[in-house]
Amino acid sequence: MPQRIIECVPNFSEGRNPDVIKQIADEVEKISGVKLLDVGPGKATNRTVITFAGEPEKVIETAFQMIKKASELIDMSQHHGEHPRMGATDVCPLVPISGISMEETVEYAKKLGKRVSEELSIPVYLYEYAATSSERKNLSVIRSGEYEGLESKLKDPAWQPDYGKAIFNKRAGATVIGVRDFLVAYNVNLNTTSVKLANAVAFDVRESGRVEKKNGKTLRDQNGNVLREPGLLKSVKAIGWYIEEYGIAQVSMNLTNLNIAPVHTAFETCCRCAEKRGMRVTGSELIGLIPLQSLLDAGKHFLNKQQRSSGVSEYELVKIAVKSLGLNDLSPFDPQKRVIEYVLEDKSAKSLLQLDLKTFADETAAESATPGGGSVSAYVGALGAALTTMVANLPAPKHSEKDWVYFSDIAEKGQHLKKELLQLVDEDTAAFNKIMEAFKLSKNTPEEKERRNKVVEEATLYAMEIPLKTMETAIKVFEIIAALIKYGNKNSISDGGVAAVCCRSAVYGAYLNVKINAATLKDQEKARPYLAKANEILEQANWQEINLLSRVENAIYPS
User: Fold this and answer.
1) Distance separating alpha carbons of residues 475 and 141, to the nearest angstrom
2) Which of 216, 396, 461, 509 could form a disulfide with 377 if both were Cys (CB 3.0 to 4.6 A apart)?
């Protein structure tokens, strides 16, 4: 399961007082599970945009504390600035990044809005994907009249807040909370210094296109409205400009919906439009951070264009994306500093996956209970999935060109299963440690003893769930192995056999871990469904291994 991450980008009506800005931003540092990504104050607008991200529950807790701090420090009755605003925390968008849907994120926005209204007496409006009506989807519509018009607006039955009473909060104003798509600021570099040519490409690609003209005159419809020729890409805003620092012109874009216009689509569209106008794209530039999935999608896209398997590692996909998009053209691009998920990783957290092969073996052999059989089983299963992926990436020489798609799909499945099994290497050790921590709980009183027993039982059930998950994941690899033995490169068929042995070993090793933990449960009724499922999977794995190895041996050296 990918880590659940949402980004939060609250806008505060203070851009001139560094002490106030710091106090609001410091709220992020007080809560574990979230990370401050950027603080962007603006003096002219008297507004600061703060960006942070992390686990959903932690993010909305942090957002609430920041909204609370802003309401204490910012007096809207004294506020002046160029940017439209209606509250101390003017707008607070949540953005799903990974492992969470738009619909789930909307529920978090509603939860945050309800709490802000109830505990801080601030009227809350919902916008974008969280909007309660189509009229309230657009932020600028909700914010019309701004702070100065808010008191009378709250008296209008059509503008009752989504959360809270329609009572004017003179100090804090109102806050707009919602959910929107991730916005990527992305520039494409051209081999020209001409802003006119860069703008021509920008008009080609952006959704709003260009104004229609004839003989130098703007064309209008019968109602006097300006006619426009739409651009090639929806959800894209773009202009052309010249960058003195680099001595080149760029097409500067905001990609407002990566599902509609991903980064690689914007890049390639700019390439085609630039070429038609006698120019060449030399590379591109990302401003700020980007979700990992965007680079993975780009990597797969460029590999598919080359009719190469996209079932390669995450590292390779990111490397291909960076190279193909030319993200190193103007300055070095470090994914560890520019990909949201990588930035949020706890670099101090110990992981068995960070160890080299020798150190992992030494760690397993050390005088400690972890890593043990469960982690080793998951790792063996990951090796089996890795072997199947390798075979899929080496299709038979006589296969037609269209077959690379089939093998690429298989390789992607293998990579996915490999990743799941690798995650279970650490999770199995964490499950064991959970039991050990439970046993350390005090049991001096009957109440403490009862609580300790309950925690131990819960930890033991979790320690059964993890190896069962290893079994469920490893058994899926057999389906891939069977396809590769039948259709794959015959020179690599023995690797398919080794993969089968690895996966059966992973299943059996994990099965033993399910059983040994089940034996310690006081409530044996809870153990029964786990054991029934484990026995079923083991039986399948035993049959699959015998069947596949028989086919492999006959293919290698028929008797």
Assistant:
1) 54
2) 509
